[in-house]
Request: fold
Amino acid sequence: MHRLTGTFLDEITHDIPSQNWGIKEWRREFQLYSRIGLDTLIIIRAGYQNKCIFPSKSLPGLLPLSDDLASMFFDLAEEFELNLWFGTYDSGSHWMRSSWWKEVELNKVFLDEVGARYGDRRAFAGWYLCHETSRNDSHIIELFNEIGGHCKSVKNLPVLISPFPQGSKQFSHGDSFTLEESLDHWERIFSATKGAFDICAFQDGQIQYTELPDFHAGIKALGDRHGVTIWSNVESFDRDMPIKFPPADWRYLKLKMEMASNVAEKLITFEFPHFVSPFSCYPSAHNLFRRYCECVGIDADFVLDGL
Reply:
């Protein structure tokens, strides 16, 4: 079974709470990653609606926040020799209202600004297209082509997407897709976006556990056919509970890791700091960390010594 070797970093706090970490807490977390084999950190979105992880001059109407979390993340990634992938901007509005060109225009000037601010950072390893989708809708092909292409023009690095299945855990009966419907939609997306992104890491929490092996196999076949590298976003939070979102039950996280390891080149997760870290605001994450370490042969006490 593959280990987790990457995690998203969610500091826009769209639907999970802020942990209010400062430089001391983040340094401890990044040092932990270097000790347990996580080498890839992905800023899930650098901006969302009126929020940004640095004081952007290109995005209109932002809250007047002065903290530069992006610079801090780059500093720490370089200190601990980790790779940092930069997420794009999600207006939360334009693309959902079919004004996809406005979403593109905002992202292009924003990405130019990101390149000017951070383009020479040694840890800058790739881009993440933060417009997540389950199907060929909301002009996702135009968004991927335009924004992904502009990412590469700013800094020619690999581009990652992390879409999700339109499964029955998230969508009501009648709105969820069969495997065949999902693969048909993603066949069209992959074929129409060649070169816009290089890696696809599907989220795994929206479909039933029993459906995952066939889904993974189908997506892997699509990736092989269209030259897209397949990773897996093994969600470490629980969608089975009636509340949003506790850390996952270890038994089911392990099951998902085992299933994904059969096809994915790399396992990443949403999201280690909140749901797996021994320093998380959720006490059950501390136990999940120990169960994870036991499974992959890491001495948790040795790792944590001195942190």
